[in-house]
Amino acid sequence: MRISVEEVYETVRMTLDHHFDIRTVTLGINLKDCIDRDIAPLTQRVRERIVEKGQLLNRCADLIVQKYGIPITNRRIAVTPASLLLEPLPKTKATVVRFARALDAAARKADIDFLGGFGAMVQKGTTAAEENLIDAIPEALSKTQRICGFLNLASTHAGINMNAVAKMGHILKDLAGRSENGIGCAKIAVFANVPEDNPFMAGAHHGIGEPDYSLNIGISGPGVVRNIVAKNPDCDLTQLSEVIKRTVFKITRAGELIGREMAGLMGVPFGIVDISLAPTTSTGDSVAEIIEAMGVGQIGSPGSTAALALLIDAVKKGGAMASGNVGGLSGTFIPVSEDEGMIRAVRDGTLSLEKLEALTSVCSVGLDMFAVPGDTPPEIISGIIADELSIGVANNKTTSVRIIPAPGRKAGDILHFGGLLGSAPVMKVPGVSTCRFVQRRGRMPSPILSLRN
Amino acid sequence: MAQEKASQICIVTVTGVDKVGIVAKLATVMARANINIVDINQKILEDTFVMTMAVDVAEAAIGMDKIKTHLDRVGKDMALKITIQDENIFKAMHRV
């Protein structure tokens, strides 16, 4: 049966009027076979591979956009965690920075805006090479433009590496101090239970369980979901879940088709479709506004957590029906600075850091793109990280933190980052100025997985 | 038995305000590019004129980028939004 005018119009409106896009096609690249005891041959092999595959990724993405008329907003690369590649090399900051610069140069040459994987898996403990990489993060990320970092500091199986969590408070403050408004910190996320196939930055990396290449795709349509929710103002919540499921089914199918065809064109295996709802600062492309269209006055007010739980459950059900390859983060992103509704709610005082944390217990990505005062002590930043990661560890899910301690700024100030990164009202951090709990260090044991109340 | 030629169906979608000459102008673009028109439908949806045209681009004399340029020009001249997309995207989204 040929497609009807109504069906065509529904799809065309999704892209023309409701910002439906393929948010990212991310090529995962294994670099383990590039490892060398000398940095020169390592960087040369890595550079050649990234440039070749990055250029191919861009060419193929252009062809697919022309064919299907669905925009592909970002083309990105994720590589094997850099700490593995640096294991046999001298444990000096200079080595790490030189490697980061080589990755950066390769990404620039291939015209790839962000390359992820500059990080390490340290949930249980830290090797000397990993320790060295973490120490070099402020310098490496401030001397490069396109490199994104990640660290997995915790997992349900290992618990939380509090030595690394305690260190990250200092590292992030150092990194923030090297850039205007602390924006350098937008390029690094710390995780509990990090997925190996997440296509979204800053946390993307090509995990050690992945094949040589893997084409992962992130779809996004908060505007589409908001539109369908707004069109159903009076239905009950069971019916609301149904209409969200149906809509997400459709956009996931589009992502699946485009991902498969991209992978086929490139001659690489198709990995996953990440069905996360990822907002942008464009008007109408907001997750907070979906929650508000569901009937919660403003995100952050009572009812928000329940509404978000319903939303993400419906998104997962619709997505899982549409594709057998759903993976990555596949939750709802609620970054403060990148979502107009979130920015508004923080500015109006409806959304606090505490409520933001509560919201992340039902959606997948954690505390994202939020600013705190520049004088927030490192132990308190580590405390915020520990709180968020324990939500992930205890609930067997991914959580992450991307925090911006804005130098010289205080609660209530507004930071303007520009472009995709939007703007962030600096949030108040409650409580005292030290956290003895963090200073104890050690490893928080993995949680018991029975007696689940 | 005659072998059927492979076809590649795309859907041209026109949205905006109905006026004289839309089909004529699109048909001219398609004929010049050696693209066969397979089917045309139109409706008023949510107060907007929507026309879909299924075309076979398998034997097209020009690439998708050029077809798009021509369609954009028609769209600009007639104050319409015109898109062209491979039919498979609609099948994927609307057929289980």
Q: What would your notes on this structure say?
A:
The complex is a heterodimer of chains A (453) and B (96). Chain A is an alpha/beta fold and 453 residues long. Chain A has two domains: 28-192, Anaerobic Ribonucleotide-triphosphate Reductase Large Chain, CATH 3.20.70.20; 223-442, Alpha-Beta Barrel (Anaerobic Ribonucleotide-triphosphate Reductase Large Chain), CATH 3.20.70.20. Chain A starts with a helix and ends in a 9-residue tail after the last strand. Chain A contains 14 helices and 13 strands. In chain A, helix 7 (222-230) runs parallel beside helix 9 (287-293). Chain A has helices at residues 5-16, 39-68, 82-86, 93-109, 128-142, 162-177, 222-230, 237-266, 287-293, 304-322, 340-347, 353-360, 378-395, 436-439; strands spanning 21-29, 72-79, 115-121, 147-155, 159-161, 188-192, 213-220, 270-274, 367-373, 399-406, 414-416, 423-425, 443-444. In chain A, the strands form two sheets. In chain A, strands 1, 2, 3, 4, 5, 6, 7, 8, 9, 10 and 13 form an eleven-stranded mixed sheet that branches. The radius of gyration of chain A is 21 Å and the shape is globular. By secondary structure, chain B is of the alpha+beta class. Chain B has a single domain (9-94), classed as 2-Layer Sandwich (Alpha-Beta Plaits), CATH 3.30.70. Helices cover 35% and strands 34% of the residues of chain B. Chain B has helices at 22-32, 64-78, 87-94; strands at residues 9-16, 36-45, 48-56, 81-86. Chain B has a four-stranded antiparallel sheet with strand order 2-3-1-4. In chain B, a hairpin with a 2-residue loop joins strand 2 (36-45) and strand 3 (48-56). The longest helix of chain B has 15 residues, at 64-78. Chain B is globular, with a radius of gyration of 14 Å. The termini of chain B are far apart. The mean pLDDT of chain B is 92. The chains are: A alpha/beta (453), B alpha+beta (96). The A-B interface holds A 2-12, 15-16, 66-70, 250-251, 253-254, 256-258 and B 11, 13, 15, 39, 41-43, 45, 48, 50-52, 54, 64-65, 68, 81, 83-94.
